[in-house]
Amino acid sequence: MFQIKAFDLEQSLQEVTERYEKEKQKRRALHNSLVELRGNIRVHCRIRPLLPFDTAAGHSISQDRQRNFSEKVAYAVDDETVLVKCSRPGHASVNKTYQFERVYSALESQDAVFADVAPLLTSLLDGYNVCIMAYGQTGSGKTYTMLGPQLEENFAFSLEDESELGIIPRAAQEVFRLISEKPPGSYWVEVSVVEVYNNEIFDLLAKDTCGKVFGVKRDVVTTKEGKNNVPLLTHETVENASEFLHLVNKGLQLRVRHPTLVHAHSSRSHLVVTSTITTIISEDNFGTSWEDEQTSQRLNKEVSCTFPQKMRDDKSTSSSRASSPAQLEATEKLKQVKTRLQLVDLAGSECVGMSGVTGAALRETSFINRSLSALADVLGAIAEQRSHVPYRNSKLTRLLQDSIGGDAKLLVMLCISPDQKYLTESMQSLGFGTRARQVQRGQVKKKNFPVPSKAK
What we know:
Blueprint: H1 2-38, E1 42-47, H2 52-56, H3 63-69, E2 74-78, E3 81-86, E4 94-99, E5 102-104, H4 110-125, E6 130-136, H5 142-146, H6 167-180, E7 187-197, E8 200-203, E9 216-218, E10 221-222, E11 228-229, E12 236-238, H7 241-252, E13 257-258, E14 266-267, E15 270-282, H8 293-302, H9 325-332, E16 334-345, H10 352-355, H11 359-383, H12 395-399, H13 401-407, E17 409-416, H14 423-437
Parallel strand pairs: 1-5, 1-17, 6-16, 6-17
Antiparallel strand pairs: 2-3, 3-4, 7-8, 7-12, 7-15, 8-9, 10-11, 13-14, 15-16
Helix pairs in contact: 4-6, 6-7
C-alpha cells in the first residue's frame, strides 16, 4: 500500500514539475517579447568554476587569509538568479540576489550557453543587427566563453574539441548554416577584427606591402547619416566558417596580452569581431509593399545599387561583374541590405592591488578601467534618458555606439568568479549587469526586406 502511495506521489510530482517547466517557458517567452518591445539589453550571467590559479593568485597573502579567500561566495540559485554571500570580519553575513534573463552555474557547458545565444543569430538574416559582448573582471572566463580554450604557443583557439568551442566559433558555424538554407548567391559575408588598446583602435587584419598581417592604427569617424565608421578598416570576404575562424585566429595572434598575478594570459585590449552580412535582393521586389513609409525611407538610405567593392572570385555564384548589356541590366536591378554581427570580448576590469601590475601593464590597466567606466556611464545615461550620452569619452564606446544606442539586439554576457577574493570585482560586474537591464532603448529597428508584389 505504501508503495502504491509512493508511486502516486511520484507521478503527481512529475506532472507538477512538467507543468511548472511549461509555465516557465511561457513566462520566458512573454518576457522576451517584452524585452523586444522595450528594447532592453539582455543580460546573461555565467559563474565559472573555482580554478587552480584561484589559490595560487594570492601568494602574497598570509596563509590564514588565503584559506578564507579560497571560499565560494557566488552561486546560481536557479537559471535566473545569482546569490552572493557578502561577509566582513566582525559583521553578520548578508546574502544579495541578482536577477538576469539567464544564469549559468559552474557546471553548465558551452553548449548550454550557446543554445540561448543562437536564436539571436536568426535575427541577423531577418534584418536585425546583433551585438554580443562578454563583460567581467580579469580571469573570470570571458575569453573562454567567447572563444573557447586557447593554445599556449600562439593564443589561437583550438578547434579540436567542438564541445569546448565558445560563442564566436559557434556563431560563425551557425551563421553559415543559416545561409546554406537560403538561395545560393543571395548572401555575402565580410569579416573585420579590431582591438581597442590604450584607447586606440588597431586593425588586426591589415597587411603590409609583403602581405604580412600586422596591427595598424585606425580612427572612428561619424558619417553624415550619424553612423560611426572606421575608414580604411580591412574587411575580408569569407565563404565558410573555416575562413571566418582563420581570420579571427590571425587577429588573435596580434592581440596584446600581459601576465598578471590574477591571470597568466590576461588580455590587455578589447577585441571586436564584426561580421557584415549583405543580402542581395532584386530591384523588381522593391517599392511594392512596406510596413510603413518611414521604414521604406530608411531602407532606401541603407541600400546601394552596386555590389560591394570587394568581389568574390569566379568560383562564387554571384561574383562575376556584368560585362554584356544583359548582365549589366541584371546587375543594376540588384540592391543590397546590410546587417551586422558584432562579437566583443572586453578586456577585464582590474584591481591593481590584486593583479600586481607595474610599468606599462599598469598604464594598460588604467586605460582598460577608464574605458569600462565610460561604457557604464553611457548605459547609465541611456537608462536615465539624459539628453547627452557621453559616447565620445572612449574609443570603445564610439566604436560600439550604434549597437549600444539601439541599432542592434544587444546581449551582455556577465562572467564572474565565485571566489571570495574576487568578491568586490564580482559585485561590480553584477551591478553593471543590473544597470544594463534597466536600459530601455525602444524597439530595435529592423532593416525590412521587401515583400514581392502579388499578381493581380
